[in-house]
Amino acid sequence: MKKIILLLSLFILNFNLSWGKLKIVTTTQDLASIVNFIGGDKIELSYIAKGYQDPHFVEAKPSYLLKLRDADLLIAVGLELEIGWLPVLVKDSRNPKILAGKGYLEASTDCEILEKPTGQLTRAGGDIHPFGNPHFWLDPNNGKIMAQNIAQRLSELDPANANFYQSNLDIFVSKLAEKQKQWEGLIEPYRGTKIVTYHNSWPNFAKYFGLDVIGYVEPKPGIPPSPSHIFKLVNQMKEENCKVILMEPYFDIKTPESIARRSGANVAVVPPSVGGEKEISDYFSLFDYAINLLIKTFKDNQVSQ
Amino acid sequence: MKKTLFVILLLFLAKNINAQRDVSGAPQQASNIFNPNISVVTNIVGSFGNDRTLEPTAFNLSEVELGIQSVIDPYARADIFIAFGAEGAELEEGYLTWLSMPFGLQSRFGKFRSNWNSFNLIHPPETPFADRPLAIVNFLGEEGVVGTGVSLSWLVPVNLFYLKWIAEVTNLPGESPSFRIIDSSGELIQSERKQDLAYLSRLSSYFDLSESANLSWGVSYLGAVNEPTGQLWTHLGGLDLTFRWKNPKRAIYSSFLWRNEIIMSKREVASDSSVTSWGGFSHINWQFFRRWHVGGRFDYSQFTDDNDNAEQGGLAYLAFAPSEFSFVSVQGRYIKRADKTEDWAGFVKLTFNIGPHGAHQF
Fold this sequence. Notes:
By secondary structure, chain A is of the alpha/beta class. Chain A has helices at 2-12, 29-39, 63-68, 86-93, 96-99, 140-157, 162-187, 203-209, 227-239, 254-263, 283-300, and strands at 22-28, 43-49, 73-76, 104-106, 194-197, 212-216, 244-247, 266-269.
């Protein structure tokens, strides 16, 4: 009986079979995918926001504190993407490792960040991000930089396995370079294609793959579309022969479908994150899925360059 | 002689002017990056009806709350909230939090809203209501329980679920009816003895029922003397239970909240007798479109010194939130008072905040 009570107590309390491994928490599933590739079985990994969630609007559930309180490293997207929920979790985690110093990493470091605002910023511009557009992981070149940042930090925290992390980074970079060639080849016939996106989540993706974003369903970031904005957007799409609306799955599809009907376009629902669909199991399949779906939509609407 | 003194004075001034130049040329902070975050929440309430507790004027700038928040050093942060209202400025909260202490502890020093149940932590402008629930007003006071002292919280190292224990020792909560008496001249008075403190303890937990639904609950205790000699005590027990639902795949479009709180009071009125009373409220909020909420609250409350009489009622509202930073609502309230009279009131509440995007408390 005493043994049973002891075992039960160990189970309920912080008994952990993965003792000795680096405990890493990422804010998104995209980051988790890269960390998983680099860290392999040398780390214990968990994440907060699932790929089908809007990373701006995640609830700061107390259950996430259970992940954060023991973490050796918290990796965030940064650029205030998680400003609505991460600070309150970190503050209540009581974990000095992630509060400051090497236990906290913003993956955006050294990445190419687009749309850094200049001049005076006000909320009249909607839900703007003062440090630039935080959806930078949708550029594969930034994926490489993120992986380098992660490998470097893992090596600093766990020098004994530095060679393992470096080796995995090399494999990741090599595979990414191979996939980049493949993706660029697939999208090549459609470079310059005009698209509309729901939220301004795709500037890095569009820049890398040569797509031309001519407008947004949201008149300003985070602001729902008004009838007058929809009217203008439909006219603009007709004038510029824009045939595709690219939207994230966590927005309501009714308005984009209405705009598509009126402008003769098609809607492509593409998750911008790993885990957004069953097929999107890692960082590579995120681009596989997005590019294949976009090309299918282009073909369905007889878009050609 | 005068000329000599004049020359000395000129030399002295010149030296000091140079000294000032030296000071202004010393290394200075080159940016405002370390300035604290400053935010302002403003609450405007219009009210009408036959309710005797309403403000005498139709429209009132109920409160302007200035928040100043910053990290102090690698170990602590500071939060200061100053409320400006019709009665002037008041330090609503001002505290330092040591974020990370051994054994999963965290502590707070200063003036802060007490961790009594869950609703008490919400600043008045940030609730969906134009008023406060009857039980809160009758037992804790119009502003809830706010104390100056120390708070210690422990995140219990349990793996399966979230469990937090909090203990607080503060000065007597100044505005709480439970810890005051009416003297012979009709004045509300309370102990001013240094040793008469308020003691609070709370245990709270949280469970994910599914990816979309969760349940949080807590039990609270608050005890302190209730009269100037410090001989008689009031013991408050609290229960709170909140159910939340939100589809994470459609987080911005719909949500549901059902919050329930009960306050039980045992007030000693003599060395051998006490009054036992209780009150509570149940609140439902349903976000049925992206920017629209509808909600209602049912209230029942006895009084801290009277369990023969009670008042009960309800409030319903429809709210529109153009963005995360503002909302406007129309509200209707009915209360059947302890003297059997019926009070009706209507409200229009407008709340907006300016400043940096703050994180949303759960």
